[in-house]
Fold:
Amino acid sequence: MVIFSYLPVTILCLIFATLMFAHIIKTWNSENKGAYKKINEIVYVLLTLGFALFYPFLIIKFGGNNAGIIFPKAVDELTLLGNVFIVGVMIGVSFWGISAKLRTIRNPELLLDQHNYEVFCTEFLEEYSERIQIKRRITHILPGAVVGLGIVIAYYFFFELLGNAWIDYAMFIVIIIGIDFALTFIAQDLIRSFDFSFMPPTAIKLCKAGLTPDELDSFSSTSIMVFSFVPFIFFTFPIFFIVILITSVADAMASMIGIFTGDKKHHFPKSTNKSIEGYIGGFIFTFICTVFAVAFSNHFQLSNWGLELTLYVALILSFVFVFIDLLTSKIKLQDNYLNPFITGFVLILILITANISVI
Structure:
């Protein structure tokens, strides 16, 4: 019977994945859809499906044999939290969208401008600037900030209440926040694809802040990035945290350095928007993020890596980051999922070679 309590979240993600796949079929022959964009969209669907399948195992991992605070078992509490704060939030988002639709029914003239997707695209392209790019990159930092803040709050304010289970509750709540973020933006993507009249005015503004011109006829890569972190939740905390910080913070800082250098930057390869300054920034911030993640983990007794191992890992991952940046300058696959997958795989391989526990 317990397995059925997971179904609301799993079914919700399956519905989202099905609608995303329907969008892919609908736009498959679009002249704006190159091979790489199609591959990216298929990967996005697979990542959403992956979370639907992983979700029950996340409940078991973080619930385990822990006793609950209200219910006898932590598994039951985490299941309830997931249903309330994932399914519940999406129900709220649905009603929000319906209210926007009713608004357009009462005021059909809104379909000519505010709730017209062609007008939205035109305005978006006219307003798109370096300032908007920087704002978008700042949102990339949020996953790392949410994880770090969640750990700090759980450890310093709920340790006495939760005991040794504090990290399990903290991680699961972080997951809920991340999935709510991802599904909300996917909902926006689907509304853009199928019926823009369901888009509330506030959501339209948020939509503009999270997109790039290349994503106007596709899905937002920022939201899908969250799902690419899920496989690494099953490994030790420093692995998960390093992957998140490199993918979110280091990548964002590398991009912003490229933006700030403006016309002074040196493009490499020449025909791309990648720059040597961005590679150097990515290398440095990957190193810093790795060292910080390990120091953070050690402080909260979630790892005990030595300085030599930390510096060794940080150096290798910094080179890996530059390699991924160079790779995506030629093949237009999204680094928002390539970065965590390649970085995580290399990191796990390094640790196994060094006889360090990864699970």
User: Anything to note?
Assistant: Residues 1-233 form one domain.
